[in-house]
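Hey,
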Amino acid sequence: MARVTFRDETAMGKPLEEFTLPGLPARITARELVRTRVREEVARYNAAPTPRFTGLVRPVEEEVERNGYRSGARRRLDWERQADAAERAFGHNGFLLLVGDRQIDDLDEEIDLTGDPVISFVKLIPLVGG
């Protein structure tokens, strides 16, 4: 099983948020990787809601705040809606997906995780989803 570090970065390469997730398969498609990342971040938020959500895509009702999104009512997020929004955002160049220093262009591309890579999500534009 592989261990992956998910990292959000600015377009200039500045790290924003980061978390590590163990127990992933050695090979996975980019789509499954994006959905796994979103499922994990939503599960963490739902387990301990905070006034700010700093996920890959922002829920529609959230109010934009510097470095995150403020929720008026701390509601549970639906990870599948968020993952669908992330897939749409990828298709519309809302973010770049980098495995190490290699850019992934297709969500159906299979990725080798055996080297415990850093997976970078470079946010290009504010993303709306959910």
